[in-house]
Amino acid sequence: MYYPNEQTNIISSPVFYGNNVKTLCSLLYMKGSSYDAIKAFIAEATDDSLNISKGTIYNWNAKLAEILETSEYEKIKEKLLNSLVLHVDETPIKINGEQYYIHNISNEEYTLQYVNKKRGIDAIKEFGFLKKYKGILVHDHFSMYYQYGTGNAECNVHTLRYLKGVTDFTEHKWAKELSNLLLEMKARKKELIEEEKENMEIDEYEQFKEKYLTILKNGQKEYKSDLKTNSYREEERKLLARLEKFVDNHLLFLKKFFVPFSNNRAEADLRFIKIRQKIGKFRSEEGAHNFVIIRSCSSTYSKKKISVKSAITLAFENKMKTDRFLKST
């Protein structure tokens, strides 16, 4: 931190903060601290010699987001466009009392997030990324995603949750049987991968698929057997129809080994957003936008074992555009 040489009016001779202080404040913010908490921490840690305003901290984050958006954020887009598989999901947030959504597009190495007032197709069109993507999308049956990519895979962890709902509310055996079969498929795939197999023999795959469809047929019979007394009948009907119609999407993980069993990657990448909402709501769309830009980059750095602190410091030093951390990774 640098001070004026003599005491003068703070407007004509402002205090200048070093990049280490800016980096620390941004790191605290990205770890979940509110602006009030950051301000209090810095004051306490420096015995009140630094009394940084919340507005100043906000402006630092806005500047950081601006630098990252034109450098690292664009590089993340380029990398994800070349990914065989992408995990997509969205979660609601509150901005100044109104509902918005943070959309997530990610894989095991990169995270890309953006804010939009809408959850559906209009938000995807406005952002424009998915219309360029030519790989496979993994999601939890949000039907709009079937318009993008060259293939779609359903999240089977979500499927297991829905099947548990049927088991908990009814005495129907099919849901438990299908749960066990899905877990058996998952285990079999793991065995084959450990044997360094790149795929499953078509005959074995077809046998698994036949068992899957047979269980669904039995499920239809159980469902129809107690329509008048089944309080869960509507949910069960929809699940049976969906599992049959999208069987190939639910079993794509078994046919193509590079496709994962679940969409847990997207859920994990959005988890911090939900934690952030508990700490405090966003007051402006601009603030939420700045947050997801920084979050996209910091999450990517963490995945790639890159120092988040070093990357943020580099950005504040205005070196990010010419010396990108992600350029050679």
Structure notes:
Helix content is 55%, strand content 10%. It is an alpha/beta fold and 329 residues long. The protein has 14 helices and five strands. Among the domains are: 81-152 and 264-306, Nucleotidyltransferase, domain 5; 156-255, no CATH class. It is elongated. A hairpin with a 4-residue loop joins strand 2 and strand 3 (111-116).
Largest sheet: 5 strands, mixed
- Please give the alpha-carbon distance between the first and last residues: 33 Å
Q: Strand content of the residues, in percent? A: 5-15%
Give the helices and strands as they follow along the chain: HHHHEEEHEEHHHHHHHHH
Shape: elongated
CATH architecture of the domain at 81-152 and 264-306: 2-Layer Sandwich
What is the residue-averaged pLDDT?
90
Number of helices: 14
**Helical percent range?**
40-55%
Return the CATH class of the domain at 81-152 and 264-306.
Answer: Alpha Beta
List the helices and strands and how they pair.
Layout: H1 19-30, H2 35-45, H3 54-69, H4 72-81, E1 85-95, E2 98-106, E3 111-116, H5 121-127, E4 136-139, E5 151-154, H6 156-169, H7 174-194, H8 202-225, H9 233-245, H10 247-250, H11 252-255, H12 264-279, H13 285-303, H14 308-316
Parallel strand pairs: 1-4, 4-5
Antiparallel strand pairs: 1-2, 2-3
Helix pairs in contact: 1-14, 3-13, 6-7, 7-8, 8-9
Short structural description:
Helices cover 55% and strands 10% of the residues. The protein has 329 residues and is of the alpha/beta class.
